[in-house]
Amino acid sequence: MKMMTVVWIFLVKRLKRRRRLLKIMQLQLRHLERRKNLETL
Questions:
Q1: 10, 16, 21, 40: least surrounded by Cβ within 10 Å?
Q2: Helix (H, G, I), strand (E, B), or coil: what is residue 21?
Q3: Could you report the per-residue pLDDT of 1-41, keeping only the tens digit for each?
Q4: Residue ranges in 1-41 assigned as alpha helix (H)
Q5: Superkingdom, according to UniProt (predicted)?
């Protein structure tokens, strides 16, 4: 039972980290798009 909780915590931490990475990626993508729009204007 204790082993399961350890695995569960590990999975949750990985999920949170991945979500944070996704958020950062989206922010960078948005920034790039904005820069492109500025260049085209």
A1: 40
A2: helix
A3: 688 899 999 999 999 999 999 999 999 999 999 988 888 87
A4: 2-40
A5: Eukaryota
